[in-house]
Amino acid sequence: MIEVQAVSHQFAIGKKGRERIVPVLHHIDMHVKQGEIVAIVGRSGSGKSTLLNLISGYIRPTIGDIRVGGRTVTKFSEGQWADFRLEHFGFIFQSFQLIPSMTAFENVELPLVLKGVGLAQRRKRVNDLLERVGLSDCAGHYPGELSGGQQQRVSVARALVLNPPVVLADEPTGSLDSDNERQLLALIGELNREQGITFLMITHDEQVAEVAHRTVLLQDGRIRPRPHGSGFLSNGIGQADSPAVWQASLNDEESRR
Ligand SMILES: Nc1ncnc2c1ncn2[C@@H]1O[C@H](COP(=O)(O)OP(=O)(O)OP(=O)(O)O)[C@@H](O)[C@H]1O
Fold this sequence. Notes:
Elements lengths: L1 E12 L6 E13 L4 E5 L6 H8 L7 E6 L2 E2 L5 H11 E5 L10 H11 L4 H14 L15 H13 L5 E5 L7 H18 L2 E5 L5 H4 L2 E6 L2 E3 L18 H4 L5 H5 L1
Parallel strand pairs: 3-8, 3-9, 6-7, 7-8
Antiparallel strand pairs: 1-2, 1-4, 4-5, 9-10
Helix pairs in contact: 3-4, 3-5, 4-5, 5-6
GO molecular function, one term: transmembrane transporter activity
Pfam families: ABC_tran
InterPro entries: AAA+_ATPase, ABC_transporter-like_ATP-bd, ABC_transporter-like_CS, ABC_transpr_LolD-like, MacB-like_ATP-bd, P-loop_NTPase
């Protein structure tokens, strides 16, 4: 589903002509199969967000290619990216990123409005999703009237509204208390099982490992193997994933069809 192939990335910071090069990711090979829940873990500054931004096309790798659903997205123009992103990715953020002046219903509906979907279809889709995330009673509430857990469930509904095969989540439980965190992770697990949605999640949260099929550890911009039995984040090393697991098994898109 997502193949990151020999990707390295560096940022240039500072004034033009006097830039300083900051290498952030080094030769990343990672394959996420359709229907997997993969957690990306690693210390602050290890390059997790950069990797997610590369996969979602907000930045382009300095070296290497990324394929999503069999297409080499690193070759896309900005216009191609905008369409592709809408169709293929839903996003969940630590800070929810709901529009405060819109109700829960309107926040979930917005991507459908932008896509030009008709009113009746929009109503059905949004109501179905709000019901799915357990928020039918809160459709008319504004984000400020909802708890953090409820807001995050609205943002899950919004992420799913265009039916993307992949959800990219950056610290989805980072702002939640432990009860809401558990509920959100259970919801992610259910959505994955029911609908085969692929989740790629950045996390510092050990609970996420319980719902993730595997974790990928980034350390100083490199993927590291994770020996069995060690802690999740304590020493930056956790449960094992053989590098072989990360190898591309090609033609994932074929198996989706
Ligand atoms: N746009 C940018 N320009 C320059 N440097 C950047 C940029 N974005 C990220 N970096 C640098 O790249 C490195 C990795 O950052 P990144 O945000 O990917 O790490 P992270 O693992 O997601 O960290 P955190 O867990 O704190 O969110 C950091 O040193 C950061 O300062």
